[in-house]
């Protein structure tokens, strides 16, 4: 079972690594995050704002009263002392008085201004009422030193908060902290290690792709014995491109190469380099290669490289220099050797090697292009053995038989199959997985999960004839895939399913076989037409398959005399094929497709009419049992089952 990929240490680090040695301990430099200049400037601004605020509030809450009010309080013998400087007077009352114009507020200390034209014998009145005239201000203001200390308090708080936020953001991987992200300072990424004692992936964990493993053995041997190759003047390959359908084990193979060679392994998805900000992807590529060079020889694995490696010149972005192309250009530069990337091998994986930029796939960048195909029968059996190592199997389990009935399945499909079988065994409270569990899991994977749908009797009978038509034509057609199972139990989107799989793995198809596939696919519609004289919507998926096969026969595989030996709709042109061929050619393709399908449909109807008794027998058995396995279906139809071993 494959080891889990270790997590990333930082969110801005798009790669994961395993097998890399830990970085040497270094004393951290004591630098203020964000720089002293920014901190001093911010502190000065805070200090000025605090001083202005303190100067505003330094006057206190003492109200300024009118001179008339002051004279009245003196006359009422309610003033205890005053201080005067020029015409400005500060004073204190004996008893609180309500503040004029401020309801609910009282005052004892006050300030007022004596008019220059006043001639009221103030001094006489003050002596008469025994008011003390002091030499010190009654209302004291804070000194400059006190103001300075108070204004420094928010500045100190700001510094502490600044350092705290910066350190937290650095630890959280936010691109160098609050100040570091703004000023461009980056912390070096730390290599992510597997847990101690965890075994790395090797070729022992890879099965079913022996011919591919042989292609990458040279890379492993080079990493293990570089001196022997240098003596012969051989250079280490720059890159290996793994191309193949999804689920065939490309990522697992790349990790196995690194584990087998015992070198550090850095893995990333190409889409993780791309950001909205132009230049970030290229920067991350440079950082990744720099980390790999530190521990060279090492391996960098980039998954789904077609995300950024598509052919350039499509006119995207301004002048073609968008973020995706800048990232691709940086990868090309790093792989070219100008940046000193010797000792770093790049392994990339893609499902679409045909859309990659030619500069990426030329020798010197990706020196080898390895096609990873779905495994053959022996490979499927080996993969099943690997995925069942941790699953207790019953004595009746025959993995060879399971491998024989799963043609075309990839390693990921087989892993899912064994997991579904284990889940079924748990639900049935068993101690081991039986052959029945594997069969049920295969039905669920290939046919879909059962639906608790109650159909009317007439529709159920029509469905039985529909599936019987598929099955009977599959049994009667020479060279057709044998029928494995027939069911009228609703599964997935289908009301019934007929499962046919080849006896051996097929890699090339004859015209006779493809016509047989079309006839079998049209069997359901033909059966409804023969028995009921009507056609229902149940043949939608059948018609999609028929259309794809017929289009391939005419436009891609040269099986039409009218079109000739041409690839009129190559590659993905089937989706928008109006741009890939002349209008006359497209009309001819449509004409030939209709001719082939019409001929096959007439043949299907003729065969079902000639074997109406066998069709009725199959439909009756399906109505009674709902599901017929391979042996029972052939027995009911009265057709001899011809086996063909690989």
UniProtKB/TrEMBL annotation:
Cofactor remark: Binds 1 zinc ion per subunit.
Binding residues for ATP: 244-251
Cofactor dependency: Zn(2+)
Keywords: ATP-binding, Cell membrane, Hydrolase, Membrane, Metal-binding, Metalloprotease, Nucleotide-binding, Protease, Transmembrane, Transmembrane helix, Zinc
TM ranges: 36-57, 144-165
All residue ranges annotated as the AAA+ ATPase domain in the record: 236-376
Source organism, top-level taxon: Bacteria
Swiss-Prot/TrEMBL GO biological process terms: protein catabolic process; proteolysis
Principal location: membrane
Membrane topology: Multi-pass membrane protein
InterPro entries listed in its UniProt record: AAA+_ATPase, AAA_lid_3, ATPase_AAA_core, ATPase_AAA_CS, FtsH, P-loop_NTPase, Pept_M41_FtsH_extracell, Peptidase_M41
Residues bound to Zn(2+): 466, 470, 542
PANTHER family in the cross-refs: ATP-DEPENDENT ZINC METALLOPROTEASE YME1L1 (PTHR23076:SF97), METALLOPROTEASE M41 FTSH (PTHR23076)
Subunit structure comment from the entry: Homohexamer.
Protein purpose: Acts as a processive, ATP-dependent zinc metallopeptidase for both cytoplasmic and membrane proteins. Plays a role in the quality control of integral membrane proteins.
Similarity comment: family membership: Belongs to the AAA ATPase family.
Protein name, per record: ATP-dependent zinc metalloprotease FtsH
Upper classification of the organism: Bacteria, Bacillati, Actinomycetota, Actinomycetes, Kitasatosporales
